[in-house]
Specification:
The complex is a heterotetramer. By secondary structure, chain A is of the alpha+beta class. Chain A has helices at 15-19, 55-59, 108-115, 131-134, 159-165, 208-219, 246-256, 266-272, 311-320, 356-371, 375-382, 402-412, 417-420, and strands spanning 35-41, 47-53, 63-67, 92-93, 99-105, 119-124, 148-156, 168-175, 188-193, 199-203, 226-230, 260-263, 279-287, 293-305, 330-339. In chain A, α6 packs across α7 (246-256) and α10 (356-371) crosses α11. Chain A is globular. In chain A, 64% of the residues are buried. Chain B has 2 domains: 3-79, Ubiquitin-like (UB roll); 88-156, DNA polymerase, domain 1. Chain B contains 5 helices and 5 strands. Chain B is globular, with a radius of gyration of 16 Å. Helix content of chain C is 38%, strand content 24%. Chain C is built from 12 helices and 12 strands. In chain C, the strands form 3 sheets. A 5-stranded antiparallel beta sheet of chain C has the order 4-5-8-6-7. In chain C, strands 9-10-11-12 form a 4-stranded antiparallel beta sheet. In chain C, α10 (225-231) runs antiparallel to α11 (238-256) and α11 runs antiparallel to α12. The termini of chain C are far apart. The chains are: A alpha+beta, B alpha+beta, C alpha+beta, D alpha+beta. Chains in contact: A-B, A-D, B-C, B-D, C-D. Chain C binds chain D through residues 101, 183, 185-191, 193, 263-264, 267-268, 270-272, 274, and chain D through 196, 198-201, 239, 254-255, 258, 260-264, 317-319, 322-323, 326.
Chain lengths: 421, 157, 286, 333
């Protein structure tokens, strides 16, 4: 290559700041007159709020205001696809982590003290925690049109004819766990009103421009009045796509005309951001004696939790990637995103394409064992190449380096790839 | 609020302040001295982002009461090197690609600094033990270990 | 953080004065690796903290007439690197080396590990192994009590609010070889799922004397006297090892009964015992 | 007893938002009259390194050193929308946008240079090491700084703006047919593990991770992404799980939610496979998400290879492994 800097490894442009501790994360910002916000969250996964009394907290010296749903001037909700996550719960909670209110006080200690004085009473509602249960007619309905938020079908060829051609068939169920992005820097933001009267927030986010849209919508102001400045971001992995502190801090700063800082502790961080979808995956795959895949049937059910976030896109991605990087002529996949009263799930590194490998890569090994083939061999014989057609009928007209990755990895383990092909 | 006089050395400078009795060393460094290179990642001594050297030894400043550091010597990341004059460990972190989001980096650098002071020629395994109290979610640690090895070589020269 | 006052005595006498005055309302602060966290979480709400880390008389390790005396505010790092400990009671060094992380080991103290009375306290099985005795001091006087009696359940001890744990006194068998191993869910920053410590005195190929202690299988670490009795006088060979492991499995099963962790721990103890015996074998060869 | 096993896993990963959704990044590049330049992009650098990679792309396109580039990112008052830092899309989508914007700014400079150097078309011109020169007659050259300053005083503004859209086609909801993502990335990882049959504990001994990234814009950064992804895969496979009870998280802390420490992540050998994606900036695709995908299944396959039990519910805890071993023993007996 004739390039000079592309392909090299110069020091990170933000590197010197980061190794010397100078890089600014939102929690590192201290503004004159700054006050502190503390969120109070639900105690129940599904309940009516029958009483919300903030008077004791507001009476505590040093408390400036307690913000609740009544204080949201614009749309009381946010979300990457559909704004169904309440800024503050309005009479009802759908998940245990729903924000009830935000206490703003002169110091973090006072805000925390006051948060303990918020008096909330609930009337519990029936809840459902397993997406397979939630799909049943008898399950408590979390949405008017049922709990199934999304269903995608993939239909290619004829799976029954495909299985009839198979010499071996493997059938197996799998379940992935709910996991957390666990980035090192807990959520934090500092909002202030600048000299122009514009609302400015310094925050670690994955998408400042969408945050601006959602902040403006919730605050009922025009987008040019909102400025989102991305500080150094302490890891994200999908966990900073849905917003956390942004609207709360901006609302408080707009009303109080003071800089407002919100910093989550680790426990609140776990509660506030999305999780990876646990998926139930039932697979059936057939292959011929020479290791060629002929049919795949899969049902994938993802737990969307209480709010939509990216669930349709994630279960779509799961379906599209359900076959693995292998050519299979006959495919039938049903993929569902289902609401429950669990914490909401959303983006995390891999975004729905991360769960199916647990199933399809186990099955490749299971088929190989039955056929007395090496794991490399069965993969090699079915691997996508340039020009291959995927289960959705897409022709891979781009660079397809799958086989090279197989060869390179296998060689480093000392496998005799020429024999194994 | 109960206040007490706290006197300690931070990055070689004697500091004397009246501060509340209920704050942690981490809070003192960040909120009072604005030495914000010391990060809070978990507040329970599990992640090491708040690592500082207390009398030369790495500790989690989120688990040390500020007044416990009275009369002692504290070194934070700001005391290791500056953008104009990087410490060889800091240079090595940049050269080896040991930095991604950077939130664990100050703690990692301090853990490495303490290790190399005691053991200028550590094995990879010894490096891993020395940074085992510092969680990193971005790098998978491999390049951090590379960086500490590189720093040992640089300093050894 | 909630409000709390703070005292920093520099002598044991000053500390005892404070404890006598504060009674239940004052709490001793040593390494702080648990207490500072509990304060933040409002699990405890003392009026004041009595920080004992500035009392130099509470630090250090010494050997006296075959006994090893460890002062309460000695850190895990100091214990793990002490020549006396490494040579005479390596099981304790093994244990202190795997506490939490380097940072926690630099902060946390032996005394703190005892008084927290956690079932999973890393150093306690090794302290119990060597017949650890705690020396408690108050303005009322001084008393000595076996650790196995001092520990009275999860988070419970026989220490009075005005008492200060001054030191722990260990009595290893002369010429013994010992080892400790902890099984955690990960290789650092791990809470012991199950742990054990064994001390053996060899007479030729035979085991002359044995002590065994286990952690994380009961409310507090304890001495497994059944296993000790079995080992006394046996040949130190594969057969003995396998029989010991089988007995240990039964013991763990008995202790845990129908607890959720029982099916796992009663099997996993095998790997733990095997690792300890391997360590002893390696040390014996030296 | 400790038993070793090896497991392999391959994956593909469709990068970008996909499904016909507007997957757009925009960027602005301005060349200053001393030959330095400013790049404006909405892309947030979450630690993966987009600020560095995008600066490298601008530097390459403009033929100036990276030190002469100031990259301003992710400030809504002054940077154009570049979409989410997600979907393994910033190197590809924003990389293309920056490259196009830089090319536009550069074209204005070259158009001006064509006049100054008296050449009849800019096709024969290029920029290297801070000089505009005639490719076939390199003695004929002029410094970018001199040229830019000249151009500025003649009223030229060396500003380029561009948007790039990653193409994809919606799938049919009834049949799933369509071309939902572009481009796809590919990877294979092989893991070696050691399983203690008495404690059920799994040590990951080593992992080789080969990734088709199209082209590595920044080699060390790509390796870092791969190694970091593997570490997250190790955690997912073995220890990580958000435990729920009636919708409540039981372990919201780093004490109980166990991510791998330096002593839990093995030595990871990253292997960069370069296939030069024609539609990517300098041939680049992405690597962020694919990096973690093969790790978990490779480890599970390695566990099976070591001890003959298949874990079908994550994570593969020592408890589950011992239980499966017991069941296997009873079945065989």
């Amino acid at each position: 290559m004739h390039e000079r800097i592309v392909g090299q490894s110069p020091w990170r442009v933000d590197g010197i700041a980061k190794v010397t501790g100078k890089a600014v994360f939102p929690q590192d910002i201290y503004l004159p007159g700054m006050v502190y916000g503390k969120t109070v969250r639900s105690k129940y996964p599904h309940a009516k709020i029958t009483k919300l009394d903030t008077s004791k907290a507001e009476a505590l010296p040093g408390v400036l205001k307690v913000f609740t749903a009544r204080d949201v001037p614009g749309h009381n909700g946010h979300g990457v696809l559909h704004p169904d996550i309440p800024v503050f719960a309005d009479g009802k909670v759908t998940s245990i982590n729903d924000a009830i209110c935000l206490v703003v006080a002169e110091t973090q200690d006072i805000a925390e003290e006051a948060a303990l004085l918020i008096d909330v009473e609930y009337e519990e509602l029936p809840a459902v925690f397993d997406p397979r249960e939630a799909m049943k007619e008898t399950a408590p309905k979390l949405r008017e049109n049922g709990n199934i938020a999304y269903h995608l079908k993939i239909r290619k060829g004829d799976v029954e004819k495909g299985f009839a051609l198979a010499d071996v068939i493997v059938e197996q169920s799998f379940k992935t766990s709910m996991v957390d992005q666990a980035f090192l820097q807990p959520e934090a933001g500092v909002a202030t009103v600048d000299e122009r009267g514009h609302i400015v927030i310094y925050v670690a986010t994955q998408y400042p421009h969408w945050d601006r849209t959602e902040i403006a919508r919730a605050l009922g102001v025009s987008q040019n009045m909102v400025r989102v400045v991305t500080t150094a971001v302490g890891g994200a992995f999908g966990g900073r796509e849905d917003m956390t502190v942004q609207i709360h801090a901006c609302l408080a700063a707009m009303v109080l005309k003071r800089p407002v800082k919100i910093v989550y502790d680790r426990s609140e961080s776990f509660k506030a951001h999305s999780k990876r979808h646990p998926m139930y995956m039932d697979y059936r795959v057939g292959a011929t004696r020479d290791g060629k895949l002929v049919a795949l049937e899969a049902t994938i059910i993802g737990d969307a939790g209480a709010y939509l976030s990216w669930s349709p896109n994630i279960l779509r991605k799961a379906a599209v990637h359900a076959t693995g990087p292998y050519y299979i002529p006959n495919v039938k996949v049903d993929s569902y995103a289902v609401h429950t009263n669990n914490p909401f799930t959303g983006a995390m590194r891999g975004f729905g394409a991360a769960q199916p490998p647990m199933a399809y890569e186990a099955i490749m090994d299971m088929l190989a064992e039955k056929l007395n083939l090496h794991p490399f061999t069965i993969r090699w014989r079915n691997a996508f190449e340039r020009g291959s057609e995927t289960a959705t009928g897409q022709i891979l007209d781009m660079s397809v380096g799958l086989k090279e990755t197989m060869l390179e990895a296998a060689r480093r383990f000392g496998w005799n790839v020429e024999e194994l092909k | 609020m109960e206040m007490k006089k706290l006197s300690l050395t931070v990055n070689g400078k004697l500091i004397e302040r009246e501060v509340p009795t209920n704050i942690r060393l981490l809070d003192f460094l960040r909120d009072y001295l604005h030495l914000t290179g010391t990060k809070e990642g978990c507040g329970e001594g599990e992640c090491g982002a708040c690592t500082v050297l207390l009398d030369g030894k790495p500790v989690n400043s989120c688990l040390v009461m500020a007044h416990s550091a009275h009369g002692r010597e504290v070194i934070t990341i700001e005391g290791i090197g500056t953008p104009d004059k990087l410490h060889p460990i800091q240079e090595a972190f940049l050269e080896a690609g040991a930095v991604q989001c950077g939130y664990c980096t100050p703690g990692m650098v301090l853990a490495a600094y303490a290790l190399l002071k005691e053991n200028p020629n550590p094995t990879r395994e010894e490096i891993k033990v020395a940074i085992s109290g510092n969680l990193c979610r971005c790098t998978g640690y491999n390049k951090i270990v590379d960086a500490v090895e590189l720093a040992a070589r640089k300093e050894g020269k | 953080m909630q409000k709390v006052d703070y005292f920093r005595p520099e002598t044991i006498e000053e500390a005892l004065e404070l404890l006598a005055a504060g009674r239940e309302e004052y709490k001793i602060l040593a390494g702080g690796t648990d207490l500072v966290l509990h304060l933040r979480e409002r699990k405890v709400s003392p009026k004041a903290l009595v920080d004992i880390t500035h009392i130099s008389a509470l630090k250090g390790i010494r050997e006296e007439e075959g006994k090893i005396i460890i002062k309460a505010a000695t850190t895990f790092t100091e214990v793990a690197s002490s020549t006396i400990v490494l040579e005479k009671i390596p099981a304790l060094a093994d244990a202190c080396k795997v506490v939490g992380s380097p940072q926690i080991r630099n902060q946390g103290t032996i005394g703190g590990n005892i008084v927290n009375a956690s079932p999973a306290a890393d150093s306690v099985p090794a302290l119990v192994l060597f017949d650890g005795v705690a020396r408690l001091t108050s303005k009322r006087g001084t008393r000595e009590i076996l650790l196995t009696e001092l520990l009275q359940g999860v988070g419970k001890t026989a220490i009075e609010p005005d008492e200060l744990l001054e030191e722990v006194i260990l009595t290893p068998y002369p010429g013994s070889v010992s080892g400790f191993y902890k099984l955690g869910r990960r290789n650092a920053l791990a809470i012991a799922r199950i742990s054990g410590a064994v001390e053996l005195v060899f007479a030729g190929s035979k085991i002359a004397k044995a002590r065994v202690a286990l952690g994380s299988v009961a409310p507090n670490p304890f001495r497994a006297t059944e296993l000790e009795q079995f080992l006394n006088g046996r040949e130190f060979n594969e057969e003995t090892k396998e029989e010991l492991i089988a007995l240990a499995k039964n013991l763990v099963a008995d202790k845990l009964g129908s607890r959720a962790s029982a099916p796992y721990k009663r099997e996993a103890i095998a790997g733990v015992m095997r690792e300890i015996l391997n360590r002893i074998e390696q040390r014996r060869g030296r | 007893m400790k038993k070793r096993g090896i497991g392999m896993a391959s994956i593909f990963y469709g990068t970008g938002y996909g499904n016909g959704f507007p997957d757009v990044s925009s960027a602005v590049v301005e060349i200053h009259d001393d030959g330095s330049a400013t790049v404006l992009t909405g892309a947030a650098d979450c630690g993966q390194g987009s600020n560095t990679v995008l600066a490298q792309i601008a530097a390459e396109e403009l033929g100036i050193p990276i030190e002469k580039i100031t990259l301003i990112s992710a400030d809504t008052d002054c940077t154009p929308d570049a979409g989410t830092t997600a979907a393994t899309r910033q190197t590809y989508t924003s990389g293309n946008a920056v490259k196009l914007a830089a090319a536009k700014a550069k074209k204005i400079l070259l158009d001006f240079a064509a006049g100054v150097l008296a050449v009849n078309t800019i096709d024969g011109l290029d920029i290297k090491d801070g000089y505009v020169y005639v490719k076939t007659f390199p003695q004929k050259r002029i410094s970018v700084a001199e040229l830019a300053s000249h151009a500025r005083f003649k009223g030229n503004r060396l500003i380029g703006e561009a948007s790039f859209t990653t193409h994809s086609t919606m799938v049919d909801p009834e049949t799933g047919q369509g071309a939902p993502y572009y481009p796809y990335a590919f990877a294979t990882q092989i893991a070696e593990v050691e399983v203690d049959t008495e404690t059920g504990k799994v040590e990951v001994i080593r992992i080789v991770a080969a990734h088709d990234v199209g082209r590595a814009i920044n080699k060390i950064a790509v390796e870092g992404q791969i190694q970091g992804g593997v570490a997250q895969g190790v955690g997912w496979a073995l220890t990580e799980e958000v435990e729920l009870k009636n919708g409540q998280i039981q372990n919201p802390s780093f004490t109980e939610y166990l991510i791998p420490t330096a002593l839990d992540v093995p030595e990871v050998t990253p292997v960069i496979v370069e296939t030069y994606e024609e539609t990517g900036p300098y041939g680049a695709k992405g690597v962020g998400e694919p990096a973690m995908l093969p790790t978990m299944p490779a480890i599970l396959n390695a566990i099976y290879n070591a001890v003959g039990v298949r874990i079908t519910e994550l994570p593969a805890t020592p408890e589950k492994i011992l239980k499966a071993l017991k069941e296997k023993e009873q079945k065989n007996a």
